[in-house]
Amino acid sequence: MRFFTATVLGLLAPSLCAATNITTPSRLDLPSGFKPPQVFKNTNLVRNTNLEKSYVRETINVVVENVDKQPQNDYYIPFPAEVFDRVGGFEVRDKKAPEKGRFDVDYTEAVSSDGNQYFVVHLPEPLDPKSQITLGISYSVLSSLSPLPATIGQADKQYLTYSFSAYMPSAYTTVTQKTKLKFPSTNVPDYTTTDGLKSGSDPERKGVTYTYGPYDTANVAPGTEHQITVRYEFTKPVITVNLLERDLEVSHWGGNLATEERYWLRNNGSQLTKQFSRVEWTFSNYQQAPTSAVRELTYPLLPGSVDPYFIDDIGNVSTSRYRPSVGRSAGSLELKPRYPIFGGWNYSFRIGWNNDLASFLRRAAGVDSDSYVLKAPLIEGPKMAEGIQYERVIVRVVLPEGAHNVRFEIIEGTNSNGLPGVNHIHAHLSSLKTYMDTLGRTTLTLEVDSLTDEARDSQFVVTYDHSMFDALRKPFTIFVGLFTVFVAAWGIGKIDVSIKKR
Amino acid sequence: MSLNEVWEAASATPFIPLIGKDSQFSVGFNLLLLALVTATLFVLNQSLLGIVSLGFPAALAFGFGAVFMICAVGVYV
Fold first, then answer.
1. Nearest-CA distance from A248 to chain B in Å?
2. A502 lies in some domain
3. What domain of life is recorded for the organism (chain A) (predicted)?
4. Does ipTM come in above 0.85?
């Protein structure tokens, strides 16, 4: 396991509780006309594009060779500027040693000459001349699927289109390459067939997998494109969360971890041709027929989760059901929105629940220690077969009042956790004043753009110091207030206001 | 030492709250009741001795009682 640690704030003195220390991910500014130095060659490239969910998930395995005379360690991966910000969970590892963790990646600003933006992968050790390394590159591209036709009937099948280049956009010459597409079903009515790129039929079809290539592209200039478009059935909603705000509130006095999530959700699938028919919907719903609408969201909750609620703009939504966890099994919160969410429709709601804090918080260095360590999921979210894409996620970890010396870390495993590197997560500390607070609660805010439900299992660890004095601040404040009233009452009672001769 | 290693090393010391969730209402209610009684007694006989013997414990009981009661009703402060 490899871990990234980021110290956000050294010491947060009570008088500085409102102070913030913002860590904003920066982007490299490349000069106009920049071209990545041609020091590498892609010997073999295999791109696996998964279209089973409502977003595109790509996994690229590429054998990279240093063709320069000097050792090299910066590998550039280009994306068009309009796509770059929709690339989520970008990660590069050594394919042959994934346990060594992800490589450091820098993001660049758009280069004005070619309109590309680059991910700059820093190899942990410079690659010697004529040496090779196999890179495993994985990422998701959000909002890259378009419904065609754009409008359909309420019970019609939905089709999505996806366009890409048969030649993988690369900054370097690629000797051979191929692209494997995996569809959700065998119903693929339209797809581009190439002519003259290779001998034999292209693509090769095998069940739900279509393979474009292999192509011999040793003499093809880097950046050359050959447009491919596929259209396939996807009669499921394209669930897009424009914004997810997730709050985790730690209460030492209550022994509770309160979670609340606020969703601004939209279905980016085909819109309805005609007006919505409740009768037709009831009929198809009774048959449990496939639909492009969001009928229900299933949200697994951790064992021990209690007091769930589901509220939207109107109020409590009673069409939800909670199946509590039994033993160590997960609970399940089944959320049925107030109305089915068809293509182009929006729905915003909020859910929340409580957990015992003992499962998430430990004393870092013994029973008498003032240092605490918190471990919790960064993102949970509904678990849907069609997947969910999140355009922006803001996670607030609300620590007890007076917590200081806050540090956080995102846990990395041998596989991708669906998150970008910790250097590309905005993190800052602030103060949040709510019930019974005098200074405000120390709040760690983590902001991530372009995520998918691949990040569901990601976890973070936060450590902080919280002394006995910090803990006693709330009751002490109330005590001082009431005691002052008593002293004032006694003092005022001693004043002689009677009318008499002095 | 990574923070996850700190978490693993602390496996023997989970956080135990001062008062468990099940007892918060009874503890909070009793402390608030005690605060009410002692505050009433103080109001009936306001003296410097009363501040120390009744006002002080009343304020203390109210401080802790209010915290536990607000937790018991679901606002975990």
1. 12
2. no
3. Eukaryota
4. yes
